[in-house]
Amino acid sequence: MKHTHPAFEAVKPDIGSSFTSLKFLRNENLKSHVWHYHPEIELIFVCKGSGKRQIGSNISYFSDGDLVLIGSNLPHCGMTNENTNNDYEMVLQFKPDFLGGPIWETPEMQKIAGLLEKSKAGIVFGEKIKKETGGKIAAMHEAVSFRKLICFLEILEDLAATQDYRILNAGKYYLQTQVEDNDRINVIFNHVKDHFREQITLEEVADLANMKVPSFCRYFKKITNKTFTHFVNEYRITHALKLLAEQPLSITEVCFESGFNNFSYFNKTFKEYVKKSPSQYRKEFNYLIE
């Protein structure tokens, strides 16, 4: 199978605007599952719905919507697919200097400048700020010209002021600064994305990276802050979370559908990552939905 590198996405601002505001109705944003990057910073709000996302080396499952800020040239994919049942998805894209570089040095913009700096590692926002901001993002999309810009800056100010967030890529995320690493690491990411249900050996991925196994292990840890085994297990557990929440499969079926070939190892790994058993997770998830 041919491995695709993350696509460079060319983004054009809306006519009469310095940034791009896009609204996708249910399941319209079909391109989002393609591994891609762009120099524009991206704010994504998913209203309701659920799905898997990979931002840098972080793989997560989200339910009841999502609000994430993705920094310049940080590769990402996922967000939604045909089974997610999101009401709509808003995507705001803007160049770091869309208002001119010096504006971020003014005292009034210090908090927002700090937010944009943190976005280089990817940020996911919590329930409270997601609910407060979602309506504002939808309203901003309908506004025009100067009012649209003011609404957008107010949204960024709200996000910069909240403590209700989590950084997605711990430590420094190397991919977005070392472009020469992109091709090699993306071949590996795409291989895991396409083959996580099968057994993946260190030998085959080291071979894809044109490296010996010990060198590959050191390289992968340096780039992602994770061992390769940890990364693959995280991918599989994230898929298991999605299946437990969305599919009427038995837990044994979820185990094998997610690429684990040993039920007790699946249970042990699931508890390590999620801090609860698969059956407990499903029961609590269904209780929340009801």
From TrEMBL:
It comes from the Bacteria. Residues 186-284 form the HTH araC/xylS-type domain. InterPro entries: Homeodomain-like_sf, HTH_AraC, HTH_AraC-typ_CS, RmlC-like_jellyroll, RmlC_Cupin_sf, Tscrpt_reg_AraC-type_HTH. The keyword DNA-binding applies. It holds the Pfam family HTH_18. Keywords: DNA-binding, Transcription, Transcription regulation. SMART domains: HTH_ARAC. One of its GO terms (molecular function) is sequence-specific DNA binding. PANTHER family: ARAC-FAMILY TRANSCRIPTIONAL REGULATOR, TRANSCRIPTIONAL REGULATOR MTLR. This is AraC family transcriptional regulator. It comes from Chryseobacterium hagamense.
